[in-house]
Please model this.
Amino acid sequence: MGKNGLDYWVNRLSFESMPVFAHAAQRVAGTASNENSTFADLAWTILQDPALTAQVLKVSNSIYYNPVSKPITTVSRAVMRLGFDAVRTMCLTASLIEAVLSKLGRKRVALEVARAFHAAVQAKMMAGRCKFVQPEEVFVAALLSRIGHIAFWCFAGETGNRLEVALDSAEQSESRVEFQVLGFRLEELTLRLAHEWKLSGLLETVIRGLDTNDPRTQAIKLGSSLSQFAEKAWDSPHTKKTVKAIGDFLKIPEMEAFRLVHGAAKDAAEIAESYGAKASSRLIPIPPEFGQAIPEEQVETEREYPKTDHAVQLASLRDLSAIVHSRNGNVNSVMSVMLEGIHRGIGMDRVFLALLTPDRHAVKAKYGLGWLPEEEVENFHVSMNPSTSNNIVKQVMETQQPIWVTEEPAQEILALLTKEMSQFIGNGPFFIMPVCMKGRAIGIVYADRTPSGRELDNESFESFTFFGQQANVGLATLV
Model:
């Protein structure tokens, strides 16, 4: 397989260079395509990754998604307030930026990401004006309409150097130069990746040139054209012609169209900045009335472990209340909000939920936050057979009372810490409490600060216990 072949690049990008993004994209697409998916399913996916959690919350509070500036402090609240589709779009976008962030120093990568953001925001603006049912679908398709270009330039190496020289010196179209150097056009790579990674049916339709009468397709093509023409100048003939076409598409005067696309360009630069794509945000052409520079923000470093955050605690408790009163909640939604409140609100390093197996012979972990991949929280499995010796899980479920296991536990507690459990959770202090429904314990919640070595305290235990009580109240309303 030649190094200039399309198959070579599809395989390389899928299995060697960008498998993390490919996996994340397929996971998000899978969640979206499942009609039974709930906000809890999406929240769980986000909360597994601290970096993604931080990115989603940051973007949720940007002026683009949250113009009223009412703080969003939990992932659950982000999904409930902004909607399933908007947060799914954030996840996909954040995953893309994470995959290419280390490569943004290369000019072509930064430029392609800039074009993608600009096209996506322009297309979504048009989708909103036309009142499309799913404007986020248009945003995603436009954002990924140059994924082949972005992925190629991230890992192009010497081949990319040759193509860059040819592009800089040629007067022909980019696609013609790409074919001469590579033997294929990067748009073809986008189409193959979109199919291999199951990104978007709409994206494939746009690239293949199918259903050209679909207004969604027209919005994406107009947004993409404008993003490239505006790089030259906002008053160039090509730019003016494209803006006039946008005005005709939206059935508005040309001056109104200019006002809208100028505002969308400014929004695009700000949203790219909020995702951490600073180099790209500065390559999006800002109309003169807004000025070119976007102020530098202080770079925030990720905290290794969550600290106590009373605002998150309060928001999580409000979310629990909202679920109860909405009558649309389920066990998963209650559990996801509770675990987020404990993990990010109380500031516990690790937390997991374990539930009785269907045969009630064991308690097995179902969800966990803060655990490293190699710890495999799902391996937590404790027998509940009457014939087995007593343990801390049995004790909590039988008494339906929470327990704070201290650094040096009393002898009666120490006897409940079996070797089987210690191998999984270690020997550090921890909190554990029952999860109850219909007056019966159906599982437990565990939380600790063992990885960071921070001490547990009375306030944290009281908050932990209170979250359990409120979750149990919520579960009682679901039966």
In short: The chain is about 60% helix and 10% strand. Residues 124 and 138 are 6 Å apart (CA to CA). The radius of gyration is 26 Å.
